[in-house]
Design a protein that fits this description.
Blueprint: H1 3-12, H2 19-27, H3 29-50, H4 58-67, H5 71-119, H6 132-140, E1 145-146, E2 155-161, E3 164-172, E4 177-184, E5 192-195, E6 199-205, E7 209-216, H7 224-231, E8 232-233, H8 238-259
Antiparallel strand pairs: 1-8, 2-3, 3-4, 4-7, 5-6, 6-7
Length: 260
């Protein structure tokens, strides 16, 4: 899959991705950054749509107005009312599907965080801080930057979370190690809980993806995710992504005209 094919698929459905698209995103930094911005905007748009509801009594007012019109007008207004009803029903169905899908995705993401921590439990025993150079190297791999002090870091590496690469950090905590995953492209609509018999934490949404912060049961992790979100700098691609999307749509339209 090339960049044009990847971005066409992304614009068709930003939250769907097949194996070839995932492979291209993992290899192409420009498309990966563009995809993060498009998905973030899609999440915000869906949240806005979900927050809009029809005025109370709208259907009754339409029916009342129809009674005072002629037969032709009545037929037109009946169709308007029917169309409004269909749109409301479809909208309610989409909201329900979206909510169910978002909940399922959130549960899957939280479980993948726990699985990853358990699979790499050896890193929880790292006792010495890593160098600032090592931390900078890991962030540089994503074109990102840790622009503030978050205290000692005992482990820092690039890791695969589900089908996307992210950053794995281990911080010292009061009751044991605290695991942090910075997950670009893993969009969350709200804060998600993460819990197992041993671990507890949460996933904090950001504009570029999400941050998981997980410690031992009883560990105080309040504010860590929010602090990280404020000091981690990812490439600012909003303007360039919007421009690229406009150019892509122009190329697609031109291509379709040539084909016809």
């Amino acid at each position: 899959m090339n960049c044009l094919e990847f971005r066409r698929q992304l614009l068709t459905d930003p939250l769907h991705q097949d194996e070839s698209a995932s492979a291209h995103e993992a290899e192409c930094a420009a498309c990966a950054a563009h995809a993060r911005e498009v998905r973030a905007q899609e999440i915000k748009l869906r949240a806005l749509i979900n927050s809009v509801s029809a005025p109370e009594g709208m259907a009754e007012r339409i029916q009342l107005a129809a009674r005072f019109e002629g037969k032709a007008a009545t037929r037109r207004r009946w169709w308007y009312g029917a169309a409004a009803g269909v749109l409301l029903a479809v909208g309610a169905g989409l909201v329900s599907v979206w909510t169910t899908s978002a909940e399922r995705i959130g549960l899957e993401l939280a479980q993948s965080v726990i699985n990853h921590i358990e699979d790499e439990a050896a890193h929880l025993r790292e006792a010495q801080p890593v160098s600032a150079g090592r931390v900078n190297y890991v962030f540089d791999r994503f074109g990102a930057e840790l622009a503030g002090d978050i205290g000692p870091i005992h482990f820092a590496a690039e890791c695969l979370m589900r089908d996307r690469n992210g950053i794995h950090l281990v911080l010292p905590g009061r009751m044991g190690a605290i695991t942090v995953f910075l997950m670009p492209g893993e969009m969350a609509a709200d804060v998600l809980p993460v819990e197992s018999p041993r671990f507890a934490g949460r996933i904090v949404p950001t504009a570029w993806g999400s941050i998981a912060v997980v410690g031992e049961q009883g560990e105080s992790i309040d504010g860590i995710g929010e602090k990280l979100a404020s000091v981690v700098r990812w490439p600012d691609t909003v303007a360039t992504s919007t421009l690229a999307a406009g150019r892509l749509l122009g190329h697609v339209a031109a291509s379709q005209q040539q084909d016809s």
